[in-house]
Design goal:
The complex is a heterodimer of chains A (302) and B (357).
Chain A (H helix, E strand, L loop, with lengths): L39 H28 L6 H22 L1 H7 L5 H14 L9 H30 L2 H5 L4 H16 L3 H9 L3 H29 L10 H10 L5 H7 L16 H10 L1 H10 L1
Helix pairs in contact in A: 1-2, 1-4, 1-5, 1-9, 2-8, 5-7, 5-8, 5-9, 7-12
Chain B lengths: L3 H24 L21 E12 L2 E7 L11 E5 L5 E5 L9 E7 L7 H7 L6 E8 L9 E7 L3 H12 L5 E8 L8 H7 L6 E5 H4 L4 H11 L5 E6 L1 H10 L5 E6 L12 E5 L4 E5 L5 H8 L16 E6 L2 E2 L7 H6 E3 L4 E2 L4 E3 L2
Parallel strand pairs in B: 7-8, 7-10, 8-9, 10-11, 12-18
Antiparallel strand pairs in B: 1-2, 1-6, 2-5, 3-4, 3-6, 12-13, 14-16, 14-18, 15-17
Keywords (chain A): Hydrolase
GO molecular function (chain A): hydrolase activity
Pfam families (chain A): Metal_hydrol
C-alpha cells in the first residue's frame, strides 16, 4: 500500500457548472411524526438524518473555512465556496425539523446534544498534540473524513432521488422534498470534497483510514439514533428496531438495500475511484428544477 | 496454543462484559457519549412564519396599517420589529404597534416613501387582505429600558415602536412620562386620537405638526425633562436621522438614551460609503456605497470565507468589536447580532466599523 496520490482518473469530467446555495424554507406544520404512513421504523431511520446533519454539516463548513488558504486552484476554490453554502443550508434546513419533532412529542435534544459534543469538541480544532504540523495533520485528517462521508451521502442522495416506493406509500411530500432537494445537491456537488482532498493531501493510507472511521462512526451513530427514536416515540407498542427490519425494507425499496450499500461502500477504495462515476448529475439537476422548495428559492433570488 | 482454561475465562469475561454493556444501553440508549452542556442544534431560531393579511387599512394620509393573522405567534415586547418578506422577495423591517398580549395577530404600519427602495410601495399597492406573507421575527433591538421615568420622542411613522411602549408605561400608575410626537401634518400622523387620549389633559403629550407649529422645540422639551423628571430617566426616540441626531445631542446628563433610526436608505434611496477597521490585520478599508464589506475585505484577505453573498447561509459571519451595524441578513439571532454580522450584506450605520479580522 503506497501512500502516494493516485493518477487522475481517466474518464471525462462533465462540463463545469458553478455551485450555488439555494435559500430554501420548509413549513412543517402538516408533517406527521411518522411521515411514512404506518411505518415508524422507516420514518425514524430516515429521521436520524435530522439528528446528525445539523451539527455534522455545520462542522463541514467550519473545517472547510480553514482549508481555504491551502487551495491553489481557482476553480476548485469556487467549487468549495459553493459547497460550503450548500452544506450550510442543509444544516439549517434539517435543524428546523428538530423543533417540530419536539412539538410532536419526541424531544431530540438528548441525542443532538451528544452529536453537538462529537462535532464541536471531539472533532473540533483542539488536537491532542501541540504545534503547527500537528494542527495541519488534524485539519487534513478531517478534510479526508469529509471526503469519505461525502461518498456515502452521494450514495444516499442518489437513492432518495430514485426511492419511488416512498411516493407509492404516501410519504409526506414536504419531507420528501427536503430529502430530495438535499440529496440532489449532494449528487450535484459530490466531486468537490474528493477533489479537495486530492488537491491538499490525497494520501491513500489516509483515504482508507478515514473511509473506515467514517463508516464505523456513521454505523454507530445511525443505529443508536434509530434505537433512541423508537424508544422515545410517544406511540405505544412500537417494536424494537432490528437489523432484519432494515434488511426487509431495503428489499422493498423503502430504505437503501443492504446489498447496494455493501457494493457502494468499498468503491471508494478503488485506485481509479472518482465521485463523478457515481449517481447522475442530470437527474439531480432535473429534480432541482422541479423541487417546490428549490423553485421557490430561485424565484426569491431572481 | 493458549490453554483451554484461558480460553474459557476470556470467553466468559467477554460474555459478561457484553451483558453489562447491553443492560447499560437498555437502561439508557444514549450511554456512553457525553453531551454538550449548551446544545447548538435544534435551538429555536426565529423561524419564518406564514401569515395572512387580515386587514389592510389606511390609518392616516400615506400610512397603511396591516394586520397579519396566524396561530400561537411568538411573543414580543414593545420596541420589537418583524422582517416582512414581500411577494417580490424584498425584505423590510417594520415595528410592531399592536397589543403584545394578542398571540393571534401582529400589527404593523408603514408610510409610503415614493422615492424609497420600493418596499413601502409594494406594501401599499400590492398587498391586499387575504394574501399570504412570510415574516421572520419578532426581534427586538429597541427594548424599553427599565427606568423611573420615561421620555418618548417620535417622528412621523417612528411612532410605531413607541406606541406599545406608551401603552405599557401609561398603564402603570405613578410612572412619569412625556411624549413629543412630531409629523408633517396632523392628517399624516397615525394613531393621533389614541395618543391624545392617553395623555388627556395633563400636558404629558406634545403633538407638533410642522405645517401648523413648525419644527418641534427639543430644547424646551429637555429643559422641562431636566427640571421635572428624576435622574436615570430613559429617553426613547424613533424617527428620521435628523431627529435622532438632534435628540442625541440634547439628552441631559444622567439620562439613558435608546434610539431606533430608520434604516439608512429607506428615505434617501441609497447606501453610503463607510470605513472598516480590521483590528488584527491593522488595516482600514473603505467600503464604497455600491460595494460590500465582504468585497472590501476579500481584496485584502483573499481567504476570507463566504458563500451565498445574499445573507442567508451564514458562512461570512464575523465578530464585530465596535461600531453600529445595519443588519440586513435573514439568519442571525438577536444574541448573534449583538456581537457579529454577516459581512456579505450588512453594512455600518456610521464609520468606523471594527471587525476581528
Amino acid at each position: 500500500m503506497s501512500n502516494s496520490p493516485d493518477p487522475a482518473p481517466s474518464e471525462q469530467v462533465p462540463p463545469h457548472k458553478p455551485l450555488k446555495a439555494r435559500k430554501v424554507s420548509f413549513s412543517w406544520e402538516g408533517t406527521p411524526l411518522h411521515w411514512v404512513p404506518g411505518d415508524p421504523f422507516t420514518s425514524h431511520t430516515i429521521n436520524v438524518l435530522h439528528l446528525l446533519l445539523p451539527a455534522g454539516e455545520r462542522w463541514f463548513v467550519h473545517v472547510y473555512k480553514q482549508v481555504l488558504p491551502y487551495i491553489r486552484d481557482e476553480r476548485l476554490r469556487a467549487d468549495v465556496v459553493g459547497f460550503i453554502g450548500q452544506e450550510a443550508m442543509h444544516s439549517q434546513a434539517h435543524d428546523e425539523v428538530l423543533p417540530h419533532l419536539r412539538e410532536s412529542g419526541l424531544d431530540p435534544t438528548p441525542y443532538t446534544a451528544q452529536v453537538d459534543w462529537l462535532f464541536e469538541k471531539l472533532l473540533g480544532d483542539r488536537f491532542l498534540l501541540p504545534g503547527r504540523r500537528a494542527r495541519r495533520w488534524w485539519l487534513m485528517e478531517r478534510v479526508a473524513v469529509i471526503a469519505a462521508i461525502e461518498h456515502y451521502t452521494a450514495f444516499l442522495g442518489d437513492w432518495i432521488l430514485n426511492a419511488s416506493e416512498l411516493d407509492r406509500r404516501g410519504a409526506d411530500p414536504t419531507m420528501l422534498d427536503l430529502l430530495r432537494w438535499h440529496g440532489a445537491e449532494e449528487v450535484e456537488h459530490r466531486s468537490v470534497a474528493f477533489d479537495l482532498f486530492r488537491h491538499v493531501d490525497g494520501g491513500y493510507r489516509r483515504r482508507v483510514r478515514t473511509w473506515l472511521t467514517g463508516l464505523l462512526a456513521m454505523f454507530f451513530l445511525w443505529q443508536r439514533g434509530v434505537r433512541f427514536f423508537m424508544a422515545n416515540d410517544p406511540a405505544p407498542n412500537l417494536r424494537k428496531p432490528t437489523f432484519r427490519g432494515f434488511y426487509v425494507r431495503g428489499k422493498r425499496g423503502l430504505l437503501p438495500s443492504t446489498r447496494a450499500m455493501a457494493r457502494s461502500v468499498p468503491r471508494y477504495l478503488a485506485r481509479d475511484y472518482h465521485p463523478s462515476q457515481e449517481g447522475s448529475t442530470e437527474q439531480a439537476v432535473a429534480y432541482l428544477a422541479s423541487s417546490p422548495a428549490a423553485v421557490a428559492a430561485d424565484r426569491g433570488a431572481a | 496454543m493458549p490453554r483451554p482454561l484461558t480460553l474459557a475465562l476470556t470467553a466468559g469475561a467477554a460474555l459478561l462484559a457484553r451483558r453489562a454493556v447491553r443492560r447499560r444501553i437498555e437502561g439508557s440508549p444514549l450511554w456512553p457519549l457525553p453531551a454538550l452542556a449548551e446544545p447548538v442544534s435544534g435551538r429555536p431560531r426565529s423561524r419564518a412564519l406564514r401569515l395572512t393579511v387580515a386587514a389592510h387599512q389606511t390609518v392616516a394620509d400615506g400610512v397603511v396599517q396591516l394586520q397579519l393573522e396566524g396561530r400561537e405567534l411568538p411573543s414580543w415586547a414593545p420596541g420589537a420589529h418583524l422582517d416582512l418578506v414581500l411577494p417580490s422577495g424584498l425584505v423590510r423591517q417594520y415595528s410592531l404597534c399592536g397589543d403584545p398580549a394578542d398571540t393571534s395577530s401582529y400589527t404593523v404600519a408603514t408610510r409610503l416613501v415614493p422615492d424609497g427602495r420600493g418596499g413601502s410601495r409594494e406594501v401599499h399597492e400590492e398587498l391586499r387582505a387575504g394574501m399570504a406573507v412570510e415574516v421572520r421575527g419578532p426581534r427586538n433591538r429597541f427594548p424599553l429600558a427599565p427606568a423611573p421615568a420615561y421620555v418618548f420622542v417620535a417622528g412621523g411613522i417612528g411612532i410605531t415602536p413607541i406606541l406599545p411602549m406608551l401603552r405599557a408605561v401609561s398603564a402603570q400608575p405613578g410612572l412619569e412620562w412625556r411624549l413629543l410626537y412630531g409629523g408633517r401634518s396632523r392628517a399624516s400622523m397615525p394613531y393621533l386620537a389614541e395618543i391624545e387620549k392617553l395623555g388627556a389633559g395633563d400636558g404629558r403629550v406634545t403633538v407638533v405638526a410642522e405645517d401648523e407649529d413648525g419644527l418641534p422645540d427639543l430644547d424646551a422639551l429637555f429643559a422641562g425633562v431636566a427640571a421635572d423628571l428624576p435622574e436615570g430617566t430613559a429617553v426613547h426616540c424613533c424617527g428620521p436621522e435628523a431627529l435622532t441626531a438632534a435628540v442625541e445631542a440634547r439628552v441631559p446628563e444622567g439620562a439613558v438614551l435608546r434610539l431606533e433610526r430608520f434604516a439608512p436608505g429607506a428615505s434617501t434611496g441609497g447606501d453610503r460609503p463607510f470605513e472598516v477597521e480590521l483590528r488584527r490585520s491593522g488595516r482600514t478599508l473603505t467600503v464604497a456605497a455600491d460595494s460590500t464589506v465582504l468585497a472590501a475585505v476579500r481584496a485584502e484577505l483573499p481567504d476570507t470565507a463566504y458563500s451565498c453573498e445574499q445573507g442567508f447561509c451564514g458562512t461570512c459571519q464575523q465578530r464585530v468589536l465596535a461600531g453600529e451595524v445595519d443588519h440586513r441578513d435573514e439568519l442571525l439571532t438577536d444574541a448573534e447580532r449583538a456581537e457579529s454580522m454577516l459581512i456579505c450584506v450588512s453594512r455600518a450605520r456610521r464609520s468606523p466599523l471594527v471587525l476581528d479580522l
